[in-house]
From TrEMBL:
Family statement: Belongs to the ZC3H12 family.
Name recorded for this polypeptide: ZC12D ribonuclease
CDD domains in the cross-refs: PIN_Zc3h12-like
Keyword rRNA-binding: no
Top-level taxonomic group: Eukaryota
Keyword Metal-binding applies: yes
Organism: Vireo altiloquus
Domain spans labelled C3H1-type: 251-276
Alphabetized InterPro entries for the sequence: Rege-1_UBA-like (IPR040546), RNase_Zc3h12_NYN (IPR021869), ZC3H12/N4BP1_RNase_Reg (IPR051101), Znf_CCCH (IPR000571)
Family matches, as Gene3D superfamilies: 3.40.50.11980
Residue ranges of the TM segments: none
ZnF region ranges: C3H1-type: 251-276
PROSITE patterns: ZF_C3H1
Length: 309
């Protein structure tokens, strides 16, 4: 568990020393969201953000030269980074098509809906895996709808057929699930499927962690492809962060303390206190001690003055 979390946050760009400190403080069973919040609280930044924070050194260019201005160069870099910051998408074509066809028909239109959804979000690397025998004419026991979509996606280099052949009249099919998980793991991408791949999880421990953390489930609602807004649960990342290589945390909104001025937690209170903006957040006991020390000190000074007279 420690190594998997260490590898996960190292891929996000955080230093190993900072990650180990946070895991020691919070414990090995801490949620990834809590670890990420603690890293941000400590001031730790991913390497990519640190490089962006460093001011770039502008170079003087002589008049009449053909050198490009830094501003134009940065604009081009930002445009390329927009697509490169999104994770590669690997779609389980059979699972998506059968799900759209209510597990009765291999609906190729469901695959097209899923591909279009990720295209609209800006993903450039999208691969769909389908067994080769799906190119054959449909039969009664395996009906196919909109089969021409597979040909169009193949021409666009999006659809990939997993190999299959016939030996003595029997079809020998390669395990397409292994292709899907292997490519997604190597590309550090996202698997789009409602299958849990339990056999592959038991086969490889690294694949087990990857499938648990990078499996994107979905639903079809009136011919609309809809993945969940919280792919890893209520306390996990949002869908945009799940599909991005550089997750962005929302700004923390301070909730006002329900006790107001009657709060007795002092500096340990995690809520917002507008009356303490320009005051040192001391506990109530420390404030009382400080108030009692002031009149005692004034009384001793008066006694000293009377004795000197």
């Amino acid at each position: 568990v420690h190594q998997s979390k260490l590898d996960f946050f190292c891929k996000l760009g955080y230093g190993k020393q900072d990650i180990c400190k946070v895991l020691e403080n919070l414990g090995q069973e801490a949620l990834e969201d809590d670890v990420l919040k603690e890293l941000i609280r400590m001031g730790s930044k991913p390497r990519a953000l640190e490089n962006q924070a460093q001011p770039s050194q502008l170079k003087l260019v002589a008049r009449g030269s053909c050198g490009t201005t830094p501003g134009l160069k940065w604009l081009g870099e930002d445009e390329s980074d927009a697509s490169s910051s999104l994770r590669p998408i690997v779609i389980d074509g059979s699972n998506v098509a059968m799900s759209h066809g209510n597990k009765e028909v291999f609906s190729c239109w469901g695959i097209q809906l899923a591909v279009d959804w990720f295209r609209e979000r800006g993903h450039t690397y999208i691969k769909v895996f389908v067994p080769l025998w799906r190119k054959e004419p449909p039969r009664q026991d395996s009906p196919i709808a909109d089969q021409h979509i597979l040909e169009e996606l193949e021409k666009q280099s999006i659809l990939v057929y997993t190999p299959s052949r016939k030996v003595k009249g029997k079809r020998v099919v390669c395990y397409d699930d292994r292709y899907i998980v292997k490519v997604a793991y190597e590309k550090d991408g996202v698997i789009v499927s409602n299958d849990h791949y339990r056999d592959l999880q038991n086969e490889n421990p690294e694949w087990k962690w990857f499938i648990e953390q990078r499996l994107l489930m979905y639903s079809f609602v009136s011919n609309r492809f809809m993945p969940p807004d919280d792919p890893l649960g209520r306390h996990g990342p949002t869908l945009s962060n799940f599909l991005s290589k550089k997750p962005v945390l929302p700004e923390k909104k301070w909730q006002p303390c329900p006790y107001g001025k009657k709060c007795t937690y002092g500096n340990k209170c995690k809520f917002y206190h507008p009356e303490r903006l320009h005051q040192a957040q001391l506990s109530v006991a420390d404030e009382l001690r400080a108030k009692t020390k002031i009149p005692l000190a004034l009384g001793k000074e008066e006694e000293r003055c009377q004795c000197s007279l």
